[in-house]
Amino acid sequence: MILLTIVWAERKIAARVQMRVGPLHVSPRLGGYFQLIADAVRFVMQEVIITVDSYRVLFVALPPLFVALALMPSFMVPLSPYLALLSRPSLHYGIIMALAVLFYLFIIVVGMGWAVNNRFAYIGAAREALIITAYEIPLLDAFASMFLTYRTIDPIEIVAKQTYIVGALYNPLAFIVYIIGVAMATSRFPFEIADYEGDVATGPYSDFSSIFLALTYAGGIYIALFSYSLLGALVFLGGWAPIAPGPWPADLWGNLAAAAWVMIKTFILMLFFVFLRSVMPVARLDHTLSFSWRWVLPIAVAATAVSAAEYFLL
Amino acid sequence: MAGQKVGEAIRAVLDVIGLGLKYTLRPERLTIYYPYEVPDYMGRVRGWIGLWTERCTSCMICARICPTNAIKMYMEKNGRRYPGIDYGRCIMCHYCIDACPTYALYPTDMRDLAFYRHEDMMYTPDMMRRPPQVPKLVPQVVKVVHEYSGGRVVKVRLGEHGEYKPLPPAPSVPVVES
Amino acid sequence: MGLKMEQYGMVLSEVESGPGGKRTLELLFGPQHPTSGHIRFFVELDGDIIVDIRPDPGFVHRTMEKLGETRHFMMNIPLFERLSLPDAINVTWAYSMAVERMLGYDVSERAEYLRTLFGEMSRISVHLYDLALHAIMIGSSTGFMYGFGLRDLLVNLWAIATGARTTPTWVLPGGVRRAPPKAFYERLAGFLDFLDRKMDEFYRLVVKNPVGYYRLKDVGYLSKSDAAAYLATGPGARGSGVDWDARRDMPYGVYKQLEWEVRVHDEGDSLARTLVRIEEVREAARIIRQLLKAMPMDGPLVGHNAAHKIPPKEREMLNELVRMSGYYVTTTNLAEGTGVTEGGRGRYFFQVFGAGTERLFRVRISTPSWQNLRAFMKATIGARLMDLPAIYGSFGFFPPEADR
Lengths: 314, 178, 404
Fold this sequence. Notes:
The structure holds three protein chains of three kinds. Chain A is an all-alpha fold. Chain A is built from 13 helices and no strands. Chain A has helices at 2-17, 35-45, 56-76, 94-103, 105-116, 119-150, 155-160, 167-170, 172-185, 197-200, 210-235, 256-279, 285-313. Chain C is an alpha+beta fold. Chain C has a single domain (64-403), classed as Cytochrome-c3 Hydrogenase, chain B, CATH 1.10.645. Chain C is globular, with a radius of gyration of 22 Å. Chains A and C meet through helix 6, helix 10, helix 12 and helix 13 of A and strand 2, helix 4, helix 5, helix 7 and helix 16 of C.
C-alpha cells in the first residue's frame, strides 16, 4: 500500500514540476493511483529471462534477498509503544540492528552486479562499492550524535524525550547529514550513480526483467527508503510523540493512532526524497566521494561535537 | 568563470527546491488529453488527401512529383487512369495537391489514421472521394488551443470537433459538393 | 574489432603501451543504450578515465547524397529536411540557397523576412531539443520535459503556419511555400514571453544547480586552437572561443539589418557550450521580436525568376500559397551552387551540381555533427566515463545528421 502510494507520488510530483500529468489513465477518478498495480501485473506476467552467462544461483537468489533485507529493519523498530515485533531486551538495540541490516544492502547490490556478468553491471557494482564508503561513516556518525544527545539508544525512550523539540531541532547538522546519507544509500537523485540509466544503463539491475526488476529496482529500493525513513522519523522527527503533552488516548491494539502518526512522518520524509528526483540532476561519482569526505564528514563531526555539548549541558 | 562558492551553491540548491515545491503545489500543465481533446490547427494542417475524379485529367503530374512514389495510377472503367495514394508511403507533404493543374486533389486536416492491414493503406481512386469515417473512440472530442497571456499558458477549449470535411485545394477554389 | 561471445563477459585487454603496460576495459557504448543515440562508441577505460574512444558511425546512413541524384530537385526538399528534423528550416534553407545560386533565382523580400523568422524559430527548436537531451543525459528528467514541452508549443505554431508540426517542408528555391496566418504572429509573441521565463527556470534547475554545474564544469575541455584545427562548428566552436557564425560572416537572409550578437564563451568546457546554447535561445527570441515589428505582411512569397515560371492564374495566389506547377517544369542548369546556413548545431553546407535535366548530378552535404565528431573525440579523451553523456550532449551530436 505504501509502495503504491510512494511510487504514484513520485511520478505525479515529477509530472507536476515538469508541466505535464503523470499516470492518469488506469484509474482516472483517482488520478491514476492504481498504475502501479497495472505495472506490477505486467511485471509478473513478463517472461522471466535469465541470461546465459550470468551466475544463476546469485541471479535468482539475490533479488528476493534484497527485498527481505530491505524490509527487515522496519520490523526491528517499534511503531508505537505497544506495536513492536521484538520485545525487550532486544528492542533496546532495535535501531542499531536496523542500521546494521541496512548497511548490508550494498553487498547485495554489488552481488547482483557481479551475478549479471556484463560490463555495465560491473561498472555499476564498482560504483556502488565506492559509494558505500561515501555515506557509511557520515550516516553512522549522524545517528551516533543523536544517541549522544538523547543519552540512550532505546527507540522508545528516544521518542519519549521528544515532544515539541524534535530531533531535527536538537541537532540540525545531524539531520542534514542524515538526509544526504540516505539519499546516497537509496540511490535517490542527486546520487543515483550506481544504477544510473544515462551511463551504465541501470548498472547492477541492467539484465533483470519481470519479477526480479519489480523486486529490486521498482520495489526494493523504495522499501529500503521506507526503512530508512522510519528510522529517521523515530530519531529525528519525533516518532509518535504527540504534539500536546500527555499520553495518547487508548485505541485499538493500544495506540493505533500513534502508529498512524509515525507512518505519516515517515511518509513525509519519503515524499521529500522522492521529490528530489524532479529537481536534481545526477552528481558525478568522484564529485560525490569528494563532497562526502570533504564536506559531509566534517559536518557530521561537528554534529557530534554539538551533541557532546548537549550531553553535558542538558 | 570560477567555480561556485559555498554560499552560492547552497542558495542555488534552496532555490531549486523552492522552484520544485512551487510547481508541485500549483502546477502549470501543458498536456492535451488525447483522444478526449485534440489540438486546433485552424484547418491548416496537412492531412489526408482526397480526389474528385470529375476534375482529373490523368496528366500524372502528381505521381511524378510525389517524393516517396506513393501515387499509383489505376485504370478505371471509363478507360482513363486516376491516382490512388498508398498511405503507407505518403508523408503528407501535399506536393501532389500543389502540382495538380485542375485542382482535382483536395486536402483535409485529418492526420490520425490507423490501419489493421498493410493492404488497407493502399487507397484506390473510388475510396478517395470522401474522407474515411473513423469510429469514434470517445463520445465527445473537444478542440483545444494554448493561449498565452502575460507569460502564462492557458489551455482554452474551443468547442466540439466535428467530422472531417474536404478543404479547398487553393485559396478561392471551390470545393466540389457531393 | 571482432569480439568473441565468450569474451563478452569481462574484456580486460592487456595493452603494452609505455613502460609496464596498461590494462583497459573496453566498453561498447552501443546504439542500444539510453544515451548513445544512434551511434556506437568503442570506449577504452582505464579505471574511470577514458583513454581512447573510437566511434562507429553509420547505423543511420540513409544514402541521402545518392538519393538526391535520383529524383527531381524539388523532391529533395522533404528528403533533406529529414537530415535534422528539429532544425528543418535551416537545413532546407541551405539546400534552397544552393539551388538558387545554381539556377540564378532571386528571393523576394517578404520571403527573406519569413525565412529568417522561421530560421530563428528553428534554431530555438533545435536548441531546446539539444538542451533537453543533454539534461536527461546528465540525469535531470525535469530539464528534458521542459525542453520538449516548450518545443511542443513551438511546433504547434509551425503547424498552423506551414502545415505540419515537425516536417514543415516549407522553404522552396526562390521563396517559401505558405504565408502564416495572423493568429500565428500573436501566438508567437506570447510564446516568446513564456519561453523566456521557462528558459530561466531551466537554467536555474539544471545549470546553476551545483549538481549540474559541477557536472559540466571543466569537463571535455577543447582548447581554441584544437577547436579551430579540428574544424569544430556551432556551439562546439563558439564555446571554445572561436568567433565564427555563418549568419554574420557569410551573410544571408536579413541578418545584416537586425541587431543581434554572436555569443562566444572562452572556457572551452561543456559548461561554456551549454551556456552558448542557452544564450543563443535568448538571442533568437530577441531577433524574432525585432522581426515581428519589421515583417512585411503583404507581398509575393517567391522571387521574380520563380514567379515567371508560375502560370498566370496561380500568380494571383502568390501572397498566400505557392503551387508546385512552376517548379515541376524547371530543369537544372549545368552549373553549381553552394549554400551555407548556420543551424543550431553548426553550419550546414550544401553544394549542388546541375545535370541539365530535372535531376541534379551531385549533391554534397556537410553537416555539423559529422564535423564535430573529431573535436568530440578529442574532448572526450581524458575525461571520466560519467562525463561522456555530458560531453555528448554539449556538442549536440546527432547521429542521423552525421551519417546522412
